[in-house]
Amino acid sequence: MNINNKIKIILINIFLFLIAADANASKIIVASTTSTYDTGLLNLLNEKFYDQYNIRVQVLSLGTGQAIRTAKDGNAEILLVHHKASEEEFMNNGYGEKRYEIMYNDYVLVGPKKDNGKCTSVQQKLEEIYNNKYLFISRGDDSGTHLKELEMWDLVNININKTNEWYLSVGQGMGSTLLISNEKKGYTLSDRSTWIAFNKRNNLKIVCEDFPPLFNQYGIILVNSKLNKNLNYKDAKKYIDWFKTKEVKELINNFKAKGKQLFYYNYN
Asked: Which pLDDT score is estimated for 80?
């Protein structure tokens, strides 16, 4: 047998071993927001979890509203989302067994670079956008960010009408919404982590930040196993318990993009 054939046999055996090892791994599904997935945070955490527990984690990267509906249908063991009112409703209606506030970041209002006006409050900036009919790009996808945006308009008693020419509801994730905003030089609301990791923003800048209404809390929820007899409750609980450890705290707090921290662990 020549050396090339030996190498081929070795590689085939390694491949078959990896397939067999993966086949023996359990699996859980996490329905999560786009920000935790698109930034790469969940990939990092899930690889560490697999290394320790031999449990694969499949991520459904969705807006918060869609992620919650997926869990209600019994199609995910874990929810990782960021709209507290929706999460509490989910729990109160018996869809979840346990909920923990696990980490946070904040939202930023971004807009065209030519905007040199001072932002004294996010309410003031939204009124300025509305009064001048500056183009505003809304995710319009029932995500946590979209729901937060609607709450912001409510704060200033502005009723949003999707037929208004200045208000563009795109029904897209955060990355696509930022792309459209950058192309059209419009305003939009973004979670800071996606904004930091986002590269194609040459026409945009942060125009309003660091105000209390822009706080962005993430919650992790163990879905009620009674929703679907096929839910892997045992391994999902391991995942939830692991998220409460010092190891995960350090992984989240040390996770950065472009030298900047994206999420801040706050489970206690």
From this structure: 98
